[in-house]
């Protein structure tokens, strides 16, 4: 582990921007050998299917009559039409065109007009687990699925916390999302929601497949908005440096977390989030986030305030979504990564995402012509 | 002619799928040296034009003041703007921009600001015939137009039949349409309209530019829907094998027919259909179908039932359109034909469409990026 | 200067079309070393920004608190997001993401979390002038800005004239616009607005960076419409050749003018117009036009008639826009310039636009596939 103990905010420790990287980060595919949520549990009803995508691969999620979810390649071996348009039949899926039928391992178990002894090959199946209200799929080498950990999210299951599930499609490479959340100097973007806040980074740490950074915040002017107080807790007096909350943002590949510890060591906010590429070019991701807020002493106070919190976080998320989509558009137009990063932890993060990502290069093209 | 007398349904006669074809069928252009309908007669009013396309070639159909339809290249020789935006002037078309005028052979007969002795070259004209309420054009080598037959459709002109004209744009290569209609094992797709039907193929025959297959049908469970009884006739008692209707589906390049003969040899249903590629990539076709149903003994019974028949056939056609568009999407994404066909007549049909098609290869590209 | 004194209309002086040009005119980029209007003054409010484009280059126009307009490259040096989404702060722009700040010369003057002694490089600035209600930018080599003239438009500032400002995005290469206005033989396009008019060209003249042509008009049949009379003046008696108004259309690269002089030498109509490419492929232009009409003797007559004049010119402009977009579509489909020009002044104009345009070739692709 690389520990960087000195604070790196302000001018004192800022390093020059990294030299031109060998690989364009925006063309590094996400590594498939991890567990990725592809849907919320409630999206896949009993006896129904749902067609989803991972980095361009079509995958059908099906919940059998017995309630188990399984995941297959979403195209019939026969004429390549999507199996999600078919029919769940007991513990199997029947293609909606000619009725070819596959069990939960992808084996073809029936072609209505063909003898059972001559059945063709089936389709690929994917390891699949259901946890925390999410359906996780392992899109990479299935032999590695058992040894790779699923995320451990104790706050989601702890009654001391209330959890909000949120997310949406965002039209950008997943790397922009990681950088957005980790670089807390972007508070200016949220000036309408947050007022004039300034982040101060306390230091960063890095391991082989993770990087994290600590922050405190100071209000430059104005009053703390109510929505923010709900999420982050009411702010302490200015200058009261020793009693500040500490926010830690961590990318533990391929997931990201943001935790706020109050000055007495209580975990007051615990966010887990992941950005799942949908298309082959990985220019669109579906975000799955679980935001757990510690319940205050007063019963039901958090439940009463919940609609305001939902509104506040949606507004923040909308601004972030908008700006990262602007970044992606700029990259598409420029055909290369022209970013000029001056904040060390972000350069570390970019390096990490490059190292942990897939080994291939996403074949994209410079967008031509339109303004 | 190749006669295959043994029935080829069920496992007994199923052959292994054809080995990898030399040409991707979905990139075989339709052969231009045939008569293709490009519009319904009623779409081209007297003194008006209609812009249509054949495989990317823009063609203007114009009905002169005298009522004759003619077909020209749909762009002015001057500045390439579409002639269909111009004005029919007697037996000629005047371009809507600078008024260059072409007669029905495509010859330029007037440029308002130029002497008649210096008129420029004109535009291409196409052989054109009007029959059965359709406007047929010969888009290929005009020298072959006379010797190539127009379709012969006696049922359409026979008062013993009532004919429905239908069609719509379908976003797929024409070959998917031929395969869809010829493979009657796809009844599962129409399970909501048709109930549980099972096709049994009785045998197939093939000539140089045609292939056909006979079917009978058995109901697996449930009652016959009213719509189906109207189209196919009320079904006979189960097991009454000798009295079954026989359906023959035939591709006689480039057209397709589906005929049902009752057990007494009466032609009860007679469908003629063709799929005309619109764009250069031949990823969209316009379907023109003429469905003739024999009138029953009771006068006006068919006319009364007609709206139900329209509804029924529209529903079936909508399901077919949806599934072939799914097939095209899969092909676009995969960039190649991954079909794994197990039904012999369809492999014969694919071979036929390859052999009868144009000699070039449609230059398409693997669809990049989007999920 | 090349003077061509003989009239070149009708067949007598028509030359053969130019031989195949070395460069496809539709792929000649407009020359950047001129002043181009990128917005109307009223579009850029005090303390606000406006994002515009010149030939694919994003440019932000900002009006500072003091009212001065300046123009910068519209992307932050940091993460390439558009500066027009930022905030005007006094005489500078602050990026909306992390707050990087640029002055009116493009220099980075603040990064909130970085010491002032370590500020990164800024962004490009563009010479910018505000005249006639337009914001002009010099997108080319800034060193040439001073020596290149801004347009001189006395009628716009003369109270004897009333000026209409108009324009819109048109989806075509700027060259189609120049050809459309200069070739008055296209009156047939406006037959619904103008009746049967015939232009007669009196002669053309050419210099190094300009070409112009004179016309008179004769009505072939019908009555003069009211809208036209307003714009061009009431027509004289037929055959009264000596008293005809003379229209002169001139391309003085990169601008275009159309002036009508009455028989007594009064300038009755004075149009200045320019077509600014927006996208890198220069397939879309934004048109800025200033149409000045001389006020008649009766006070307020022109003001009363103004709505009719607006309606009339909008109709004409809509027809022109439609036809040039058809021309562009044809070019995109054909991938080359198939125009077959027979009118000498247009061949001169095309030659001029080729010679005065940028030296590079716009990299475009033949549109594939769609009908």
Give a topology summary:
The structure is a homotrimer of 371-residue chains.
Chain A: E1 2-4, E2 36-40, E3 49-54, E4 57-63, E5 69-73, E6 87-89, E7 92-94, E8 101-103, E9 108-110, E10 125-126, E11 128-131, E12 134-137, H1 154-157, E13 161-166, E14 169-170, H2 174-182, H3 191-194, E15 196-206, E16 210-221, H4 226-232, E17 246-252, E18 255-261, E19 267-277, E20 285-294, H5 301-334, H6 344-356
Antiparallel strand pairs in A: 1-15, 2-12, 3-4, 4-5, 5-10, 6-7, 7-8, 8-9, 11-12, 13-20, 14-20, 15-16, 16-17, 17-18, 18-19, 19-20
Region (Disordered) (chains A, B, C): 1-20
Domain Rieske (chains A, B, C): 35-137
GO molecular function, one term (chains A, B, C): 2 iron, 2 sulfur cluster binding
Summarize the structure in words.
The structure is a homotrimer of 371-residue chains. Residues 1-17 and 237-242 of chain A have low confidence and may be disordered. The first copy, chain A, folds into two domains: 2-30 and 150-356, Naphthalene 1,2-dioxygenase Alpha Subunit, Chain A, domain 1 (Alpha-Beta Complex); 36-144, Rieske [2Fe-2S] iron-sulphur domain (Rieske Iron-sulfur Protein). Chain A has 371 residues and is α+β, with helices and mostly antiparallel strands. The longest helix of chain A is centred in the C-terminal third of the chain and has 34 residues, at 301-334. Chain A is globular and about 75 Å long. Chain A has six helices and 20 strands. In chain A, strand 19 and strand 20 form a beta hairpin. At the A-C interface, helix 5 of A face loops of C. Chains A, B, C: Residues 35-137 form the Rieske domain.
């Amino acid at each position: 582990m690389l520990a960087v103990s000195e604070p790196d905010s302000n001018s004192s420790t800022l390093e020059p921007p990294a030299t031109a990287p060998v690989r364009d980060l925006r063309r590094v595919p996400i590594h498939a050998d991890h567990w990725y949520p592809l849907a919320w549990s409630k999206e896949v009803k009993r006896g129904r299917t749902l067609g989803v995508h991972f980095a361009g691969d079509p995958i059908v999620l099906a919940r059998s009559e017995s309630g188990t979810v399984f995941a297959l390649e979403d195209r019939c071996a026969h004429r390549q039409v999507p199996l999600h348009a078919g029919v769940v039949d007991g513990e199997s899926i029947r293609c909606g065109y000619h009725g070819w039928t596959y069990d939960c391992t992808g084996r073809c178990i029936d072609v209505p007009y063909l003898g059972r002894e001559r059945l063709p090959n089936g389709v690929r199946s994917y390891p699949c687990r259901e946890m925390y209200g999410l359906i996780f799929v392992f899109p990479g080498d299935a032999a590695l699925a058992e040894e790779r950990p699923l995320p451990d999210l104790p706050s989601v299951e702890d009654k001391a916390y209330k959890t909000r599930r949120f997310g949406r499609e965002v039209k950008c490479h997943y790397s922009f999302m990681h950088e957005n959340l980790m670089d807390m100097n972007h508070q200016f973007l949220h000036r309408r929601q947050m007022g004039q806040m300034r982040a101060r980074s306390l230091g960063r740490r890095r391991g082989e497949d993770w990087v994290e950074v600590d922050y405190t915040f100071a209000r430059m002017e104005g009053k703390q908005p109510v929505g923010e107080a709900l999420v982050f807790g009411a702010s302490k007096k200015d200058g009261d440096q020793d009693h500040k909350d500490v926010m830690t943002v961590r990318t533990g590949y391929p997931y990201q977390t943001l935790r706020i510890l109050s000055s007495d060591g209580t975990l007051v906010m615990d966010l887990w989030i992941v950005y799942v590429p949908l298309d082959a070019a990985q220019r669109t991701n579906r975000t799955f986030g679980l935001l757990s807020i510690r319940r205050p002493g007063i019963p039901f106070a958090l439940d009463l305030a919940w609609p305001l919190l939902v509104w506040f976080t949606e507004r923040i998320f909308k601004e972030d979504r908008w700006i990262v989509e602007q970044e992606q558009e700029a990259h598409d137009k420029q055909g290369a990564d022209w970013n000029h990063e001056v904040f060390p932890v972000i350069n570390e993060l970019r390096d990490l995402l490059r190292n942990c990502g897939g080994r291939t290069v996403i074949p994209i093209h410079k967008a031509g012509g339109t303004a």
